[in-house]
Amino acid sequence: MQVSDTVSKLISALLEVGETKTFDRITVKEITERADIHRKTFYYYYSDKYELLRDAYVVNALKYWDRDQLTLVNWERQTGEVLKAIKEHYRFYENSIHWDGGLWHRMTVDRIGYVINKTLNQFEPDTKGDARFSNLFISGGIMEVMNTWIGHGCQTEISILLSSFKQMIADFMDIIPRLTNTIRFE
């Protein structure tokens, strides 16, 4: 995602303010003052602070999970980059993900789900009906592990998280045949 200098300043200001305040308490005025940008300029680019937050999530961390660049070969490296970016600004994420109206949840589940879907289609191409459940189950689990990691100050090593994610996916892939033989998800 290419961003203008103005948008970059706004995102940086949001990240800075978000290090010390929860998102629900941050105002557009605080962001624009920190960015040294007129309030009208903010509204030229964004209708509200949630739109800016969406761009901040993408520009700071979720850019590594871009659908055009994410593959089964590079997902682990890309996920490592996402986690590094989050760790660098973990207080911002800690102060935003629970007060953003579900934005973080929707964005991460969508992006994680994309690669999970690719994986499921590679190994189980005929499980379209079950794929949605599997996708939501795995991506939701990974997202919750990430949220817990953020909530604990990103203390666990990134390599350990990546190993956990790989194991979570492998374990789930192992039980899919048993699930599909006993349960039908519509």
UniProtKB/TrEMBL annotation:
GO MF term set: DNA binding
Stored SUPFAM superfamilies: Homeodomain-like
Keyword terms, alphabetized: DNA-binding
Cited Pfam families: TetR_C_8 (PF14278), TetR_N (PF00440)
DNA-binding region: 27-46
Ranges of residues in domain HTH tetR-type: 4-64
Coiled coil: none
UniProt keyword DNA-binding, yes or no: yes
Domain of life: Bacteria
PANTHER family: ACREF/ENVCD OPERON REPRESSOR-RELATED (PTHR43479), ACREF_ENVCD OPERON REPRESSOR-RELATED (PTHR43479:SF11)
Protein's recorded name: HTH tetR-type domain-containing protein
Organism (species): Levilactobacillus bambusae
